[in-house]
What does this fold into?
Amino acid sequence: MSDNWVVQNLQNALDTWNEKLAEIWTLITMSPENFKGGTIWSVVLNIHGAIQAIGLALLVLFFVVGVMKTCGSFAEVKRPETALKIFIRFALAKGVVTYGLDLMLALFSIVQGVVSTIMNSAGLGAIQQTVLPGEIITAIEECTFFESIPLWAVTLIGSLFITVLSFVMILTVYGRFFKLYLYTAIAPVPLSTFAGEPTQSVGIAFIKSYAAVCLEGAIIVLGCIIFSLFAATPPVVQSGASAVTMVWSYVGELVFNMLVLVGAIKMADRVVREMMGL
It folds into this structure.
């Protein structure tokens, strides 16, 4: 690496960006069971098991309320077809609450398969590294002390933007895991609403919301792939321009591309929810 402070500052900011982007590439293919060594997942499983008992109790309550609202009289309940329908609903609802965790993991695995397919179809084994072009490094090193003063200001602003965007991006991906854990822990309660016809809309909305959180991974991968293609063709460096102009143009275009990626990742939840009709 160059001994020039301006070059080092810019490259350190780009290294932070590359590090967070590579971390996203790894995290997006990781299951909740393996995240952070599985410590969080074990706690979530304990909470899920404790809440499952509450979910089964609510299952009976929603079932009784649903029967009372959908059946006009006890004589109607005694009809074989009605009784069979009620029994099947109760059995299915109990199965959903009891095996809800397995069903959610199966749904997550399906979505992860979609993510893997997208990654394989793109033909990218890893995200392209963003590096400072040699022309800019040469122009910066050739600057005198007074010429480099405005470069310091441009570098500080650009490095600050790049570093902040890096952490905003990684926090969004961590937030996806946070939501997955929340949905998994509380799942038995909303799933118990399937026991009653009047309340089943709550369970349907819960499943659609969980599916939306899982699908966020696909949107994030698409955003990273598109940015990787931008990184493969870095911003054009204006030959013959002053070092300040070259750095300002390069950093400005790079920050714009980063903002597009961060915006896509931040809007992943909203985009998926619109697709799911939520």
Notes: Residues 5-276 form one domain.
